[in-house]
Design brief:
Blueprint lengths: L1 H8 L4 E5 L7 H14 L4 E5 L3 H7 L2 E6 L2 E7 H4 L2 H10 L2 E2 L2 E2 L1
Helix pairs in contact: 2-3
């Protein structure tokens, strides 16, 4: 939270966040995302996050990457289909040069 606050002091037009929930308890994660929802109302955010349900609650558009390639992209509503999301993300995983 301190790092996010420090970044906002400069009034950026774009806030870049890489795994803001990493290592946080569920309670702190919920607090961070509650604050990010408010920030997103006035500042554009580019967010990298593995907890997709949290990220989809605050984003307008999302892109899912697997092994460096785009496997799914669309609006938050379109990507809220967990079955499709998991199929595209997990279904595209490569193990030792072959798809699993």
């Amino acid at each position: 939270m301190v790092a996010i606050g420090r970044a906002l002091v400069a009034a950026p037009r774009l806030l870049l966040l890489d795994e803001p929930s990493l290592g946080l308890s569920p309670l702190l994660t919920a607090t961070v995302y509650r604050v990010l929802r408010e920030i997103a109302k006035v500042t554009a955010i580019l967010l990298v996050e593995q907890q997709t349900a949290l990220a989809l609650r605050i984003c307008n558009r999302a892109t899912v990457l697997a092994t460096g390639s785009v496997v799914l992209e669309g609006t938050a509503a379109e990507l809220s289909d967990r079955e499709l999301l998991m199929d595209r993300y997990v279904g595209q995983t490569q193990v030792y040069g072959r798809r699993t």
